[in-house]
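Internal ticket - ligand job 299, ribose-5-phosphate:
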Amino acid sequence: MKPIVLSLPGNELLAQKIIVAIQADKAEYELRSFPDGETYLRVLSDVAERDIILVCTLYQPDSKLLPLLFLCRLLKDLKVKSICLVSPYLAYMRQDKQFKSGEAVTSGYFASVLSGICDRLITIDPHLHRRVSMKEIYSIPCDVLHAASIISKWIKANIPDALVIGPDSESEQWVSEVAKNAEVPFVILEKVRHGDKEVKVSVPQVDGYKAHTPVLVDDIISTARTMIETVSHLKNAGMRAPVCIGVHAVFAGNAYADLRNAGVAKIVTCNSITHETNEIDISEILIHALRNKTMFNAL
Ligand code: R5P
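stdout (structure tokens):
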């Protein structure tokens, strides 16, 4: 039987693309808040024995988690065959270490909640820095997809004279891939984070690249401090105004305005989180993964 797609609020566009591309059915449901703020939930479609594709990007996760948890519990009660959570942006991946005694390593806690309610997870460029594999925290199968290929395509089409710049050593693996496929050079910086908004990035060695357009590429733009600090180094080095590309447009607080005011030529993001800078569409890589029917057979 065809899979059936259910999208949480805000994910309708991506869900519709998936439905059309893999010829899935669409599940109808009702989700609202009671006057006291508690969640009301009712699935209207017949979902028994069906493979569910649940689309929910997990930006600002705290308010999304409880409805998601209730929905998954309800789907299990309604005897679905499997639940595959498609979450283009996966939250709580950055708090992966106890820096001070008594701190919560929330990436593990969050992973155990999702592992307990879904059968499979598909996500894009989760923040795997200190952890090597999702298996370290998730006990369900996880398909980790990468935006590198679509970012390369965008750079190739829009900035043929790019010099790709990665913010830290952890980014080298995929930033080098982006540059290789876009057929442009790259440099990698060193970064040290001293606090939520305090970041020190090494001065890029760009002397040989004055004729290039710097293109900063990072997985997440959150406070934008990493990018802003790099932009200021590039300005001091006499480089052109850079283009900033982020996979996940988190843009916490005033980050977007701050980055725009830092003297960048353009800000471009993937649509794993809806934002006015979205110019790179992640749906094709998700659809490609979902077309691989073995993922459902493997459950
Ligand atoms: C860190 O390791 C990540 O790859 C990003 O560089 C980081 O999340 C960016 O954060 P912010 O925008 O707050 O500097």
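Auto-summary: The chain has nine helices and 16 strands. The CA atoms of residues 117 and 255 lie 33 Å apart.
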